[in-house]
Inverse folding.
């Protein structure tokens, strides 16, 4: 970093012939925090001062790279050309993965297996043909199995269609009003906690059908009944066979990825189903197999009686729950699938509309709700699919298989399907994410864990709402980082605040104010110019304290953050602020210097351990003729050449404050409220910079 400080307004920058022209996504000092000139997170000491204000509404400001990451910098890619043979092959692979999952999710949801296949067909033919995502595959998802089972148990299978129907209509509305991106604004800890809260109960609920038994009911009851389940299985030979098939399915699902290349292309679930069918056909083996009826006869269109149930508050709650969870799971999956390939990115609002259309059709047919599914989507990507054709064809294969070969489905053991879902539940639970989150962020770990526990103990909606609330509280606490420094200097008790002062930090603010009042000095200086956000509670407390102390005869200098104030000229013709001058530093300065920018060799700039750079467009700078002060920014080289060894160093610049101009003007005034200032610091870092920075912000001198 070399050179001098520079400040320009937008107009000055436009007139400067040396100013580099701005280019979309180029290294523009006024746009990027990570470019060559405005160093952000990659600067020498981690202090980014080249933060511009010229960024357009497209979000050109980058976050550490040379190219802006905003909307304007995104390039639209044309979809790749389809290879028909590859698309057909990929669709068959997705079909083989989807078939056991559709049936298994239906069984886990407590509904006939045919409804799962119908939802899979709709996910392929309706959602798959719609625009939005290219390679994401939709169908009945294990993540909603527990919620569907609870809903069916409480309201019956007939009401499921109405709930899914109106959830789909609501998804379409959300997509039309462009709220698809809203679902991305959810804490990752809440999302992972939600998935873990879905996966853990799913594993315990499927442990029972894996041993040809019936689950007791709630997740807590299922967990408590596991010892009895194991004891009963050990005494029943047929249950042991079923349990062995379930265990083989789980092991295959985990280890199949280590199989040789050509073999690994066959889905593990399909191999497990083949083994299960072979074992079930052995004479003397009497394990439970899938009961499949007529696919068309399973369609149950909701009637007037079901629509009348919308007057029930429980039904409305279920509709909202299905909408939120299905939308979030689909769009989270879209983000994950986009990272798997380099093709066209998901368009979230059209994708949300497509998911809504699929759920609307599924609701009209009385089938299971539809979401995007990671397992099928990843299989589609790995099979080499490039267009929507593969995911659409997989729905056609599901329909043809269910209509032409329904007798094959009746040979599949229930325990094998349960094993497939146990593996899916483990992947949703993802236990390795908990220690990883602990190492990365313990606050987010707490949110993630609490979300999981509340979902397991209560229900999915309650757990997600609790997790969102916990995430918001955590963010609020972390955003309310207020640095308060207080000390005594001569006859003045000084309190300097910086950061975000909200009601969460009100106790620390009150403590600092009371300590200043108890210091027994005739003057109190409250400097809040470094505060980036001052909420009503803290502002009221500071103003009340100021009024009380002034009423006692003390002199209180109050520097508040705020917008620009209009300027007037004093009797000497110098510009001055119309704000209370007694509340500003330098009120004793000689007449004629109020509001002026420092100029001349004797200019004095704020210095000392508590010095703050003027902030806001209403900030005032002052000078004393012939005074011995710290040189202004930009004159550090001259200061080092003329200053002695023990000269006081210039104070460190504060984040988010305005800066001094590169050269004085004949009649300087502060920038107006519409001026856009940016500050570029290209001065070499002092040798003792790190030591001074650590000392100023040492924990012993800061109160948080």
């Amino acid at each position: 970093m070399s050179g001098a400080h520079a400040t320009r307004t937008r107009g000055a920058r436009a007139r400067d012939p040396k100013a580099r022209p701005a280019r979309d996504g180029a290294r523009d000092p006024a746009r990027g925090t990570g470019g060559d000139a405005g160093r952000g997170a990659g600067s020498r000491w981690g202090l980014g001062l080249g933060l511009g204000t010229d960024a357009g509404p497209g979000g050109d400001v980058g976050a550490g790279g040379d190219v802006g990451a905003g909307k304007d910098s995104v390039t639209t890619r044309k979809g790749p050309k389809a290879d028909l043979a590859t698309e057909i092959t990929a669709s068959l692979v997705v079909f083989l993965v989807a078939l056991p999952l559709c049936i298994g999710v239906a069984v886990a949801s407590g509904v006939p297996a045919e409804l799962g296949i119908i939802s899979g067909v709709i996910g392929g033919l309706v959602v798959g043909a719609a625009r939005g995502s290219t390679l994401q595959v939709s169908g009945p998802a294990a993540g909603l199995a527990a919620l569907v089972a609870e809903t069916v148990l409480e309201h019956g299978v007939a009401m499921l269609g109405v709930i899914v129907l109106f959830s789909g209509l609501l998804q379409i509305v959300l997509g039309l009003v462009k709220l698809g991106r809203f679902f991305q604004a959810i804490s990752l800890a809440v999302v992972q906690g939600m998935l873990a809260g879905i996966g853990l109960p799913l594993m315990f609920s499927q442990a029972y059908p894996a041993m040809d038994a019936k689950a007791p009911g709630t997740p807590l009851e299922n967990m408590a009944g596991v010892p009895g389940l194991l004891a009963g299985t050990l005494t029943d030979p047929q249950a042991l066979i079923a349990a062995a098939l379930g265990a083989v399915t789980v092991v295959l699902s985990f280890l199949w990825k280590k199989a040789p290349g050509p073999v690994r292309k066959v889905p593990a679930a399909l191999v497990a189903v083949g083994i299960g069918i072979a074992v079930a056909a052995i004479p003397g083996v009497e394990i439970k197999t899938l009961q499949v009826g007529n696919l068309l006869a399973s369609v149950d269109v909701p009637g007037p009686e079901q629509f009348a149930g919308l007057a029930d508050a429980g039904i409305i709650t279920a509709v909202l729950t299905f909408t939120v969870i299905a939308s979030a799971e689909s769009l989270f999956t879209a983000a994950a699938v986009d990272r798997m390939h380099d093709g066209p990115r998901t368009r979230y609002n059209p994708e949300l509309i497509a998911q809504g259309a699929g759920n609307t059709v599924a609701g009209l047919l009385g089938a299971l709700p539809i979401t995007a599914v990671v397992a099928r989507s990843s299989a589609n990507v790995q099979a080499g699919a490039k267009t929507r054709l593969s995911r659409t064809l997989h729905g056609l294969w599901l329909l043809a298989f269910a209509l032409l070969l329904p007798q094959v489905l009746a040979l599949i053991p229930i325990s094998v399907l349960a094993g497939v879902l146990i593996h899916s539940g483990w992947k949703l639970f993802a236990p390795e994410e908990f220690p990883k989150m602990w190492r990365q962020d313990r606050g987010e770990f707490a949110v993630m864990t609490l979300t999981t526990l509340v979902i397991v103990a209560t229900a999915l909606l309650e757990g997600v709402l609790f997790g969102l609330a916990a995430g918001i509280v955590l963010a609020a606490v972390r955003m309310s980082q207020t640095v308060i420094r207080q000390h005594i200097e001569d006859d003045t008790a000084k309190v300097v605040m910086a950061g975000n002062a909200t009601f969460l930090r009100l106790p620390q603010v009150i403590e600092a104010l009371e300590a200043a009042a108890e210091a027994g000095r005739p003057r109190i200086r409250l400097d809040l110019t470094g505060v980036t956000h001052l909420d009503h509670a803290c502002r009221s407390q500071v103003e009340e304290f100021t009024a009380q102390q002034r009423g006692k005869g003390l002199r209180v200098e109050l520097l508040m953050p705020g917008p620009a104030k209009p300027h007037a000229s004093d009797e000497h013709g110098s510009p001055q602020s119309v704000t209370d001058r007694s509340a500003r530093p330098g009120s004793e300065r000689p007449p004629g210097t109020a509001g002026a920018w420092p100029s001349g060799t004797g200019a004095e700039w704020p210095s000392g351990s508590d010095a703050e750079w003027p902030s806001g467009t209403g900030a005032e700078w002052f000078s004393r003729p012939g005074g011995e002060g710290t040189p202004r920014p930009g004159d550090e080289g001259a200061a080092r050449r003329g200053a002695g060894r023990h000269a006081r160093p210039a104070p460190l610049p504060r984040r988010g404050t305005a800066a001094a101009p590169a050269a004085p003007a004949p009649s300087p005034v502060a920038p107006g409220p519409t001026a856009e200032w940016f500050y570029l610091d290209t001065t070499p870092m002092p040798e003792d910079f790190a030591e001074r920075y650590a000392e100023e912000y040492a924990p012993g001198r800061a109160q948080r």
Notes: Strands lie at 6-8, 138-139, 371-372, 482-489, 492-501, 523-534, 555-559, 567-569, 575-577, 678-680. Residues 1-77, 564-650, 652-681, 700-704 have pLDDT under 50 and may be disordered. The first strand starts at residue 6 and ends at 8. The radius of gyration is 34 Å.
